[in-house]
Structures are given as structure tokens and as C-alpha cells.
Write a structure and sequence with these properties.
CATH topology of one domain: Cytochrome Bc1 Complex, Chain D, domain 2
Shape: elongated
CATH class of one domain: Mainly Alpha
Strand content: under 5%
Largest sheet: none
Distance between the termini: 111 Å
Structural class: mainly alpha
CATH architecture of one domain: Orthogonal Bundle
CATH superfamily of one domain: Cytochrome c-like domain
Number of strands: 0
Order of helices and strands: HHHHHHHH
Length: 190
């Protein structure tokens, strides 16, 4: 009987010792620790780790490649580039003018009307709430805008207006918005 009691006491003492080290925030025993704490690999490290050829840092795209559905813009971000862009006509099909203006209006309402206003008079919601100032009307005589200069401004941005090239999914959408802006300018001039 005393052997049974001593074995039982030893078992209770052993269980008390094991559970006293238990921490609810960390697993105590890990069967396969690499599944819990994986080994990290630095993919772009400079030395040859076997992931990239010749120990290069990051693989660069092939020369003269461009992103899908996007062509590089031929004019640079400078006043001279903007003046050259001013002479550029829209490459969109004139037979689909109504569809282009409808799509341009849809995109304009999403991205541009908040500052420039629904009719292009420079009285968008942010201007009315005085969050931004100095958004001129498209009808201002000092604003000698064309479809090409509008595209250039949306592509690179101008003054406090940032670039909107990344918001549009294709360059066709930029041209559609530029054509719609010219339509708004024409409507304001009447």
C-alpha cells in the first residue's frame, strides 16, 4: 500500500512540476519546430544564395520592355514637353466619339469632379469646403488647354495636382477623360 501511495505521490509531483512551467502564450513542446518557426530567406540579398543567377540583386526586366496595356509617353515632364503635347491630337477613333465621351464622363466624375466640379468650372466639393484652393475653370482665357496638354497634365500632374496615370487602367482612358474635359471647356464657353 505504501508503494502505491509513494508512486501516486511521485506521479502527482511530476505532473505538478511539468504543468508549473506551462505558458499559455507559447507552445511548450513542438513536434516539428520548423513548421512553427520557419527559416527566413532573403530573396534579394547580394551574395549568391542560389536563388538568383550570378549573385545579382534583383532581376531587371529585359531592355525596351513596357508594362502590358501601357506605352511610354513620348513627351517629357517639362514646360517644353507640355508645349509639344499641346499640339498632339487625340488618337481615339472619331467615329466612337459619343462612347468615348460617355466613358470620359464616367471617369471624370470619379477622379476629377471632386476638385474641378461636375461642369469644369473649378467649383468641386473640395473647393467649396475650402480644402484646396486655386482650381481654375476650364473656360478661363488664360488656360490655353488642348486635348494634348490635358493628357500631359493628367499623365504627369501639374502644380498641386498629382499624376492620375496610375488610376486609369489604360492610356485610352486618359484620352477619353481629356476629350471629355475639352467638351466641358466648349460647354462653358457658350
Amino acid at each position: 500500500m505504501t508503494k502505491t501511495i509513494s508512486k501516486l505521490g511521485l506521479l502527482i509531483l511530476l505532473l505538478a512540476g511539468v504543468t508549473s512551467c506551462f505558458d499559455k502564450n507559447e507552445p511548450n513542446y513542438q513536434y516539428m519546430p520548423n513548421m512553427y518557426e520557419s527559416v527566413g530567406y532573403e530573396t534579394y540579398e547580394g551574395d549568391n544564395n542560389g536563388l538568383l543567377p550570378d549573385g545579382t540583386a534583383a532581376m531587371l526586366p529585359a531592355e525596351n520592355t513596357v508594362s502590358r496595356n501601357w506605352l511610354p509617353y513620348e513627351f517629357d515632364n517639362s514646360p517644353e514637353g507640355k508645349e509639344l503635347a499641346r499640339l498632339q491630337p487625340s488618337p481615339l477613333d472619331s467615329l466612337q466619339r459619343e462612347e468615348n465621351l460617355a466613358k470620359g464622363k464616367e471617369l471624370y466624375d470619379v477622379y476629377c469632379a471632386i476638385c474641378h466640379g461636375n461642369n469644369g468650372a473649378g467649383q468641386g466639393t473640395l473647393v467649396k469646403r475650402e480644402k484646396i484652393l486655386g482650381v481654375p475653370s476650364y473656360a478661363d482665357a488664360a488656360r490655353n488647354i488642348s486635348v494634348g496638354s490635358t493628357y500631359h497634365t493628367m499623365y504627369y500632374g501639374l502644380n498641386s495636382m498629382g499624376s492620375y496615370a496610375s488610376q486609369m487602367s489604360t492610356e485610352e482612358e486618359l484620352w477619353q477623360v481629356a476629350e471629355y474635359v475639352m467638351q466641358l471647356k466648349e460647354d462653358l464657353s457658350k
